[in-house]
Amino acid sequence: MNCVKSKQLEKYFEEQLTPLESRQLEEHVAGCSYCRDLLHMKLEDLQEFEVVLNEISPLPNAFTYEIKSKIKAREVDDLENRRKKKGLHIVKKLTLAAAGLAAAISLGVFVSPTFASYVNSLFNIEKYGYEGAKIAAEKGFSQKLDMKVVDKGITIEAKEILVDSLALAVIVDAKDQNGKKIPPDDLLQGVQKSILTDKSEKKQFERTEPDDSDWYCTQYGDYIILTRDMQGIFTEQNPMPAEMLVHLTFNKIGNTEGKWQLKIPVDMTKANVATKQISVNEKYTSPQGVSLNLKDIEILPSATLVSVEAKQTKELEEKIQSISKEKGFRDDFNDFKKGDDLTPFHAADALKNTGFAYQLLDERGTVIAGRDDFGVPKAISIDTGSMQGGYSQNNYTFRNSFLPIRDTKKLTFKLHAIYTNEATNFQARLNLSNLSRKPFTKKDAFGNTFTFKGFKLKEWELNNVDASIKEKIKVKGGLITYEATLARDIMSTDVWSAKDETGKVHEVYSGGYLVAHGDKDQTLVTKTTKDEKGLVHIEGVMAIEDIEHQPKELTLSYHTVKKQHRDVDWKVDIPLDK
Question: For residue 492, how many C-alpha atoms fall within 13 Å in the half-sphere facing its CB?
Answer without folding.
Answer: 20
